[in-house]
Amino acid sequence: LSGTPLTSAPSDNDSSTQIATTAYAKSQDAVLRREPDQGVALTAAASGSSGITVADNDNIDMGTNSFMPYFNGLVPDFTPAADIILMQKWTANVGIELGIKATTGYIYLTLNTTTYTSSAAPVATDGTKHFITPIVTVGAVNTTVDFLFDAVALGAQQTAANPGTVSNAAALYILGTSAVRTAGTVSDAGIANFAPTAAEVLDMYCNGI
Length: 209
Description:
The protein is α+β, with helices and mostly antiparallel strands. It is built from 2 helices and 13 strands, in the order H-E-E-E-E-E-E-E-E-E-E-E-E-E-H. The protein starts with 14 loop residues before the first helix and ends with a helix.
C-alpha cells in the first residue's frame, strides 16, 4: 500500500461532512452485505413440460384462513402477448393461480373460479427482478386481495364474495403448470399461511423471507 496521505482540514469534522460520509458508508455496507441475485431460469414450453414442481399436500382453508402467495423473480416481458403463469396449485377448478395478464401487464390471482385483477399495471423493465405479493384476506362474506409489487401497493384493493376453500393436495408449480412452462427466473416463491401487513411485506422485500 502506497500513496500520499491526505491532509486533514477543519471541514472534515463538520456535521455535513460526517452525515454525508456516514450515509455513503451505510449505503455501501448495504450493497456489500446483500447476497447476489440467484435463481432458477426456465425457458418457455407450450406443452410437454412443466414448471418447477414442489410436492405439496398442505391445505389452505379459505373458510377461515388468510394467506399470501409470493413470487420473487423475473420474466422477459411484463406486458406479454398472452397470459403468463407465475404459480399454480390447482385441481378440478379448486386452487390458486398467480400470473400476469396479456397486453396490460396487470397482475391477477385466481381463487377457484373467481379472478382478482390489479387495477394498475406495475412499472417494470422487462427482464428485471421483482417481488409480487397478493395478500388474501378472508372476511365473513367477502375476500379481499391487496396486490403489492416490490412492497408497494399496486392499485386499489379488490373485493369479491368468498370463493370457498382452495384446499387441495396438488403439487405447487412455479413458472408454469403441470403441462406448460413459463420463461423466467425465480429466486423465491411459495405460499405464506398468513396475511402479512404492508410493513411485514416490506421487511420480506428488503431482507428476504
